[in-house]
Amino acid sequence: MIMLFRSLTFFFILISFPAYAADNVMENYIKQNQLLEEEIKLSRKPDIYYVFNMLEMKIYIKARGINLKEFSIQDFSRWGKPFSVNVFKVKRKSTFIKPARETIKPGDEKKKDNFELEALELKDMPTRYTIVFEGGATLFIRPSSEGFISTTGNFFYSSYKLLTRPLLMVWNTLKGKSYKAFNIVLNENDARAVYWSIPEKSAVILCL
Amino acid sequence: MDGNKNLFKFIIGFFFIFLAVESVGFYLGSDEKSPDSKTNKENKISLNALKTKNTALKRKLANFNPGGIYIVVDSGMNRLYLKKGNKTIHEAVVSCGSGNILKDPSGKRQWVFDTPMGDYSVKSKNTSPIWTRPDWAFIEEGEAIPKNPKDRREEGVLGDYALGFGNGYFIHGTLYTRLLGRNVSHGCIRVGDKDLKIIYDAAELGTRIFIF
Fold first, then answer.
1. What is the value of ipTM here, to two decimals?
2. Which of residues 65-104 of A touch B (CB under 8 A)?
3. Which pLDDT tens digit goes with each residue over A155-179?
4. CA B181 to CA B205: how far, in whole Å?
5. What is the pTM of this model?
6. Which of A18, A29, B14, B43 matches a 20 to 30 Å C-alpha distance to B67?
7. Where a domain ends, among B17, B32, B64?
8. Which 1-40 residues of chain A touch chain B by CB within 8 A?
9. Does B56 lie in the same domain as B79?
10. Distance from CA of A88 to the nearest CA of B (A)
């Protein structure tokens, strides 16, 4: 009796696994095709666009279908109604302390005896920020927890979002709007580079 | 005493309402259903059809690739890559825009010294280029803007070659080679002499320049 039960279980696993795997393969192809269709639309324009591909856990900076640079995503989570592929336009980048530009005082360079480089550089970019898209969706980027400061920061952020996101979700649903939020964890240098590279009004493809 | 009881009831009531709203929010927010699993079954597209479409789309996207040599500039890392297909032929340390702001003392004009990001192409190629100093170059130095255009010309500051990519922006040489790798320019891309020669020889008019 036990042998029969085991055999039946094994048989069902055998026949159900290929069906599940085939479904997954098909789903991936559908997503890939949607992504390619959106990329083709963006590649027609002389602009740089960005692909956040969660299937591959990569961020790509692209133009005309060419991969200019890529970053590895360490972790990803989503909040709100699911979708496969969607194109968003960057409305603004929001951060606690915005990197400040130096204002040159005319004639000041001549007076200086020692040259001191005053410039906005990659190291001045934030590692924890939100990209707000047109339509209200938000993408929060934060560094991986390394050391006391980033671990504490990540703890407070997670607690804050845990409380506010459900409230925002209910509020937007009541208003008839969809609410979408995404969290991405990158290493510190990549987080800075992504902040630097994504200007306002640029197109971002999100593939989940 | 009654006041304390009412306050306690209010806090408890508020807490339960808050919990209820949070629960509803969690339920709505953590929808895990993938929209594709439905579409997939509803449309009953065959795997072969999907594969064929995938190959066709990939080919279509690849057609946008300019082909031949192109230039990629990473303005944050201050690196320039000369590329052909997916291969990097040459890599150079450069200086991109400082991001600083200069205001005209009259208050009418302002310049932001960023290297422009986007998809450009080589529009001009010059040897022994002469720099025509724009208004900001005089304002920055605290000098009067000359009326005679000849007084704007300055030789030797742009190196041996310059590749123009529009709106007064160039890939050119520099006297400040010790600052290569730092964001120090007024928006142009400064390159060391040896690298500049390689880039100048490889790039033709129309060669694409991608800056991010």
1. 0.85
2. 65-69, 79-84, 101-104
3. 887 788 788 888 888 888 888 888 8
4. 26
5. 0.85
6. A29
7. B64
8. 22-23, 25-27, 29-33, 36-37, 39-40
9. no
10. 18
